[in-house]
């Protein structure tokens, strides 16, 4: 079932032409004797009340007459210039597109900027050298933040052009990275963009870039590595909420067997190599995204992902790199949703002490505790051996309860703490229901008191349900929420 808001997004909004909008403004001026600005505001309000999508409309008194606008002038230069003049015009376009209140995006849409830039990039022209190609790709990347420009790219058969730029042997690593970043922007929240890029072979063009980086350091190397990972994640993420279904899962299945070994190997090579947190996050996130089913989780595990991710998690924990901790733990959490990976994960060196240590050190950081507790939830599901391992680590269950208590205290200041609390409740439930030793230890630690507090202080919903279920599985007879 879909919510009303989801159905509304899928239904879409009707659009009008620039001429229709300009005529409405003129009518307000002539028929109703409005001042120009008042007429413009009235026309905007009228069309928005009718649920008309005005994202493609230039909303100014001058209307579609934009020949003197800086964006129009820069685009004209881009079409004909070369060298430094071309680069400067592209740079100016990027700056104009950064202004959310400006009309540059719509002016460029109406003047066919995407098609023009793709033609220049394909033919060389002003983008014949690396600096020019980079400048043009930066403009495309900025334009693809708007759905209308994404669609314009598909209409101009842009994906094969982007693929050719990335696959071209003479393209520098910096140009390849920008080509991948533009492709990523095209794929985000645009299902047709994902499909077109896959058909064009963009994912296949990305993997050699990933393999070429290895342990190399440098700005271009890191940008290339992160761009490859971001593209793979975008192609396999179901984020287009204008459609009822997505090919993202099928994309992950088709790409995973080839991409996961490369991603895991690359992450392994980055151990001990100076690497920015954002790049490590991109690698971990891509591994998580592509490990979409039991088989693919197994592929990642076969190539050593469990140990590599755990080591990155521990190193980030010691260094205080919370973003890397979250990303590595999220990937481990995904892999441990596979029953075949759970035993292998428990066989890693000091795995339970590392998780317990992270819970103790970061118990006031709900974004981290959610991932660690979520990992424990997946690990203990249908797996009494994992529950026994948690019981066997002195202080581990106490750390779980302390993290729950801390999240409850943080809930008012940080609503995201509720997700951490829910994962903690589910972990307790999994441990108690299949492992008598865990149940006994939890009761000795008065876990029921923490759960009662969460249940009674939570509104009806997923968190209250999770706390009630955990109380029931601990053997509490009065596990149901009290009537309010």
TrEMBL record:
PANTHER family: ARMADILLO REPEAT-CONTAINING PROTEIN 6 (PTHR22895). Keywords: Repeat. SMART domains: ARM. This is Armadillo repeat-containing protein 6. It comes from Auxenochlorella protothecoides (Green microalga).
């Amino acid at each position: 079932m879909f919510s009303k808001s989801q159905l509304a997004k899928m239904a879409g909004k009707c659009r009008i032409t620039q001429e229709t909008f300009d005529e409405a403004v003129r009518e307000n001026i002539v028929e109703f004797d409005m001042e120009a600005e008042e007429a413009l505001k009235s026309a905007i309000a009228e069309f928005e009340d009718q649920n008309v999508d005005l994202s493609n409309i230039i909303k100014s008194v001058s209307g579609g007459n934009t020949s003197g606008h800086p964006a129009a002038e820069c685009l004209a230069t881009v079409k004909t210039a070369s060298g430094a003049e071309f680069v400067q015009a592209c740079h100016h376009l990027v700056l104009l597109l950064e202004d959310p209140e400006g009309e540059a995006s719509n002016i460029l849409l109406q003047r066919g900027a995407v098609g023009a830039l793709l033609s220049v990039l394909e033919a060389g022209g002003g983008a014949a050298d690396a600096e020019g190609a980079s400048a043009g790709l930066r403009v495309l990347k900025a334009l693809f933040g708007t759905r209308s420009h994404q669609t314009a790219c598909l209409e101009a058969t842009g994906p094969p052009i982007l693929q050719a730029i990335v696959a071209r042997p003479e393209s520098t690593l910096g140009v390849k990275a920008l080509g991948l970043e533009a492709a990523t922007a095209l794929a985000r929240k645009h299902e047709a963009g994902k499909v077109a890029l896959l058909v064009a072979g963009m994912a296949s063009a990305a993997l050699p870039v990933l393999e070429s980086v290895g342990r190399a350091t440098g700005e271009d190397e890191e940008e290339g590595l992160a761009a490859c990972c971001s593209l793979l994640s975008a192609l396999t993420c179901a984020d287009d909420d204008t459609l009822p279904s997505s090919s993202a899962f099928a994309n992950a299945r088709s790409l995973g067997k080839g991409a996961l070994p490369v991603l895991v190997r690359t992450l392994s090579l980055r151990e001990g190599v100076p690497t920015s947190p954002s790049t490590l996050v991109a690698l971990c996130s891509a591994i998580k995204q592509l490990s979409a089913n039991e088989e693919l989780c197994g592929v990642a595990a076969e190539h050593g992902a469990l140990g590599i991710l755990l080591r990155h998690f521990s190193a980030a924990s010691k260094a205080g790199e919370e973003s890397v901790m979250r990303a590595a733990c999220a990937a481990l959490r995904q892999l441990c949703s596979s029953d075949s990976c759970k035993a292998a994960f428990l066989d890693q060196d000091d795995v339970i002490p590392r998780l317990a240590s992270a819970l103790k050190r970061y118990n006031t950081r709900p974004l981290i505790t959610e991932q660690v507790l979520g990992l424990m939830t997946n690990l203990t599901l249908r797996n009494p051996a994992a529950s026994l391992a948690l019981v066997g680590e002195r202080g581990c269950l106490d750390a779980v309860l302390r993290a729950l208590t801390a999240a409850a205290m943080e809930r008012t200041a940080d609503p995201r703490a509720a997700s951490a609390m829910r994962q903690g409740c589910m972990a307790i439930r999994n441990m108690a229901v299949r492992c008598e030793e865990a149940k006994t230890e939890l009761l000795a630690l008065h876990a029921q008191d923490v759960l009662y507090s969460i249940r009674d202080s939570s509104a009806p919903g997923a968190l209250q349900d999770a706390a009630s279920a955990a109380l029931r599985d601990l053997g509490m007879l009065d596990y149901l929420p009290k009537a309010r």
